[in-house]
Amino acid sequence: MALVGRPNVGKSTLLNAALGHPLAIVSPMPQTTRDAILGVVHHGPAEIALLDTPGLHRPRTELGRVMNQAAREAARSADVIVFVTEAPDPARLRGGAAKDGEHSRPLAPHPGDLTLLADLGSEAPVVLVLNKVDRTRDKSQLLPLLEALSKVREFAAVVPISARRDDGVQRVLDEVAKLCPEGEWGFAPDELTDRPTRFFAGEYVREQILRATKEEVPHASAVQIERYVEPTGGGALHIDATIHVERPGQKKILIGAGAEQLKRIGTEARLRIEELVGRQVNLKLWVRVTPAWRESLERLEELGYNKGEAS
Ligand SMILES: Nc1nc2c(ncn2[C@@H]2O[C@H](COP(=O)(O)OP(=O)(O)O)[C@@H](O)[C@H]2O)c(=O)[nH]1
Ligand SMILES: [Mg+2]
């Protein structure tokens, strides 16, 4: 099944809650997820393969177009689509209710949601997930939004949840399990994903960059794993990675005074990778300026972002 929705509605948080493991990286910044990531959940007798996708958005760069394409392809090939949207920000809700003491205005769906829903096609059943309901104290305020969305298309189920609090996530899996065809996959019970740990090593470095820096630096950064050596018979895993940025100023920010920033990023990322692989990790980071890598199909390919044909 594929998780689709606008950027930042909480798709990756939902994947992690379903897995019970913080596999996918999550941040308050839109476009955190750049590749589709598969997570495997054993739910009762069912095995559910959840595909987390980059948020569909209006792309401004070649990277953005590649990300949209990854999400669309995931949606096309899925047996079940989980369409994720979010409860409105409380500030917006208050604004709506305050109008001359009227009843609170029925909340309209986000225009981006309407476009996405129209785009989804009608082959696969769609489960509507309204995430972040923890932000709304009076849940009845959400009903007009759910009603309006239900008029846009038919949903196999509608599930309000809080992915962050792991509230309602099991219900999403129940609904998906009912809709899933039987016996298609075949992962080992302890397998979390089909991606190699090498991929997540790069993701966890990027996660620390997202945490440590602001504005254009996270969007302009890409992590390339240059060396990944797993000594047989134990011992530390050796990883060399290059962080590509687009401008010298971004490189300076990432490294920081006395290289303190880069050291912190390396230490935090190493701890996350060690948790995933269950062994010691030796992580070395370099920062390189690769101008306009987000606009170059060739660079994107080298960085692993361009698997299919770009359109
Ligand atoms: N209040 C609240 N915030 C959430 C919830 N789920 C996710 N978030 C936050 O929303 C932001 C985007 O989440 P993420 O999973 O990266 O969204 P994605 O872009 O759809 O994958 C992060 O700051 C999350 O912590 C939720 O249930 N409640
Ligand atoms: Mg995400």
Automatic annotation (TrEMBL):
Residue ranges annotated for the Era-type G domain, each copy included: 1-182
Subcellular location: Cytoplasm; Cell membrane
GO function terms (MF aspect): GTP binding; GTPase activity; ribosomal small subunit binding; small ribosomal subunit rRNA binding
G3 as annotated region, ranges: 52-55
Annotated segments matching region G1: 5-12
Biological processes per GO annotation: ribosomal small subunit assembly
Residue span of region G2: 31-35
Keyword annotations of the record: Cell membrane, Cytoplasm, GTP-binding, Membrane, Nucleotide-binding, Ribosome biogenesis, RNA-binding, rRNA-binding
Broad class of the protein's primary localization: cytoplasm
Residue ranges, annotated region (G4): 131-134
Record function comment: An essential GTPase that binds both GDP and GTP, with rapid nucleotide exchange. Plays a role in 16S rRNA processing and 30S ribosomal subunit biogenesis and possibly also in cell cycle regulation and energy metabolism.
Family membership: Belongs to the TRAFAC class TrmE-Era-EngA-EngB-Septin-like GTPase superfamily. Era GTPase family.
Name this protein carries in UniProt: GTPase Era
Species per Swiss-Prot/TrEMBL record: Sorangium cellulosum
Name of the gene this protein is made from: era
